Amino acid sequence: MPRTIQQSLRAGGRKLQVAGIKSATLDATVIIGFVLQKSKEYLFAHPENFVLPDQTRAINKRLSRRALGCPVAYLTNQKEFFGLDFFVDKRVLIPRPKTELLVEETLNIISANFKNQRVNVADIGTGSGCLAITLAKRAPNARLFAVDVSARALSVAKRNAKLHGVTKKINFYRGDLLLPLRNKRLDIVIANLPYLRPNQIKGDIRFEPRRALVGGHDGLKLLKKLFQQITKLKYPPPFLILEIDRSQMIAVRRLAKKLLPKTVSPIIRQTAFPLLKNAPFKKRTAKC
Predict the structure, then answer these.
(1) Looking at the chain, which terminus has fewer C-beta neighbours within 10 angstroms, N or C?
(2) Which helix (H) or strand (E) holds 121?
(3) For the whole model, what pTM was predicted?
(4) What one-character DSSP code corresponds to residue 265?
(5) What top-level class would CATH report for the domain 5-68?
(6) What does the pLDDT look like over 128-163, one tens digit per residue?
(7) Any idea where the domains of the chain sit in the sequence?
(8) For residues 121 and 237, what is the distance between their CA atoms, to the nearest angstrom?
(9) Are 194 and 149 in contact (CB under 8 A)?
(10) 49 torsion bin: left (phi>0), alpha (psi -120 to 50), beta (else)
């Protein structure tokens, strides 16, 4: 006999709780709503409605993957960022709420320094394209340049740009940090580069692309490289906005003072990935 929505929610929540998923009830609700193509409000308002057998199979498949730690965003191919929905899969890092601070900082700089004039903004390590696309929608006077070393990640970013109707506002480049833009005059550079150490890859983030997470043995390899590239630019950007791990603040400030031209004003935002202390360390990215 088919299950009702209420039975499915209860069974899904229990399955994830047994697996040790802290957000078990919420995750089960999101997964079931995704499969049924119904909102959370609908699920709670119509608990007596039946779930079709093929829908139950699709739900159970995703619940099993979530129980292994696979992020919900990869199971639904969707993640909200700055009020916008983005397509995500295992080719890209999942956007984090704290990264929205980079958007806010950039918008504040544009408002204060480039009001009513064209501003060139480079998003280095664009991944899903969430930063560049959000800025393209929020800052009409911004011209965006989005760079990533991964062709697979750029495919996702371009898909999201098309989804949000900003393809013509963003120039995408594949390459090593700032090298594709070395002849451009940039006003603002934003960079959410890999900054974790290898021993920090634990918990759910082990399912995300390792290349987008690890920044060398100390997490600073790519930041150092970015700073060095900036020093070689004919027109160093006056504003540089970075996201780093909170434990790196002192080291990054020292690097910035040592390597960056005095004309560049670095704005450094701290964040931290939610790591599970007892999760097993795995050298390679886990599959889900």
Answers:
(1) N
(2) strand 119-124
(3) 0.90
(4) E
(5) mainly alpha
(6) 999 999 999 999 999 999 999 999 999 999 999 999
(7) 5-68, 79-271
(8) 9
(9) no
(10) beta
